[in-house]
Every structure is written in structure tokens, then in C-alpha cells.
Write the C-alpha cells for this entry.
Amino acid sequence: VQNEMLKLNDGIVVLSDNGELIKYNLIGTREWSTLTEANSKSSPASNGKLILLGNEKGELIAISTEDGDIKYRKKLSSNIEGDICIDGPNAYFGDNNGNLFSVTVAEGIINWRFNTKNKILVSPVYDESKIIVGNLAGDIFCVNKTDGKLIWKTSTNGVINTTPLLLTNFLIQPDFNKKVLFIDTQTGKIQKIYEFERRVKLSPVLYDGILYLGSDKGIINAYKTVSKD
């Protein structure tokens, strides 16, 4: 298992590299496992009733959280390694061809597709009106959540392979080239760049006024944030 574990209300779900989805209850007993018969590097997501995952065949698979039954599997791409996120009735993810998808959770029907033209590995982040995602070419795209139309694009000249942290005014985006970018969410303009001695490969976390950034060699950097009234 190399992707993120998934926490449900009544247990934990893990997805192995060979595509086996396993649910454990909260005392560590295996409740069910489902063999999807395809390798997968995509981190799954759930709305509490269904678990969605992508695989190397380009399939989107929906599995019941209750018993592990496969509800549907649909081929949407050539390969899906991008992590999945769910917001209400819709799910969002990227594929190896650089496409950002919006699909319905219940049926796996495509709402829209936006081509970023380079491989997407990270999970998209979103607010009430927009979806933001980066690709391996270092480009970051902000698109309209409803119709997939481009709002802004920012080129970082780096490599985006870490899911960012989306705040009200800033997107905090790690760059594989030993940087962290602070990007204005309204315009896409890079407002500030922090440079590090090592690659920053963990998603940023903001907790209790402290911003945590993790880099190679197991180093955690903590920054106190200041609110401006």
C-alpha cells in the first residue's frame, strides 16, 4: 500500500498496489476485501456509501462501503493515477493524459473534462465555486466547478506532484524543486516563494494557527500564522 488510507465512520480502508481494496473495522478486524483485478496507484475517496478509485486501465470503480460489492466500473481514460476527491454528488480527479474530470459519484457519468496537457498525480482541491489542480509540467489550473471553464492558469517552472492546501485567499503549493508557493486564489499570481534545502513532498497542514510543511529526511517545518483583521 503506497497511497493514502481512507477513514470511514466505522473503519479504515486501504488500497493495495495490485488493486485489492480492504476494509478493517476500528479494532483492526478485516470486514471485507475486493479484488479489482487491476493495479492502482490512485488514492481512493468515499462519500460514506461508495468508495471511488482509479486504476492503470483507466477505469473508475465504485465499491459499496457496506459489503465491498462493485457497483460500477467505467473506462474513462488510458490510466488514472491521480488521487480522487468527492464534493457532494460529484467527484474530481486527474489522469495520466492531463485530463481533469468531473463525474457523478452515483453513476460515474462525466459532467465535464478539462485538458491540462500533462500528467496529473495530485488530488484536486476545491471551494464552493472552483477546482484547482497542478500537473507534472508545473502548471496550475483553476477551473469553474460547474462547467470546467478555465478561470486562471499559472506556470511555476517546477514540478507539481503534491496536493496543495487551499485557504480562503491563498493556495499553498509545494513544488518538487525544493520550494513552496503561496498563490492568490482569485488571480493565480504567485505572491511569495519559500525555498528549502530539500524537496517538500508532503501536503501542507494548517492546525491551530500553525502551518506544517514536511520535506525530505523526515524534517517538519512549523510556521506560526498571523491573522490580519
Notes: The chain is about 0% helix and 50% strand. The first strand starts at residue 6 and ends at 8.
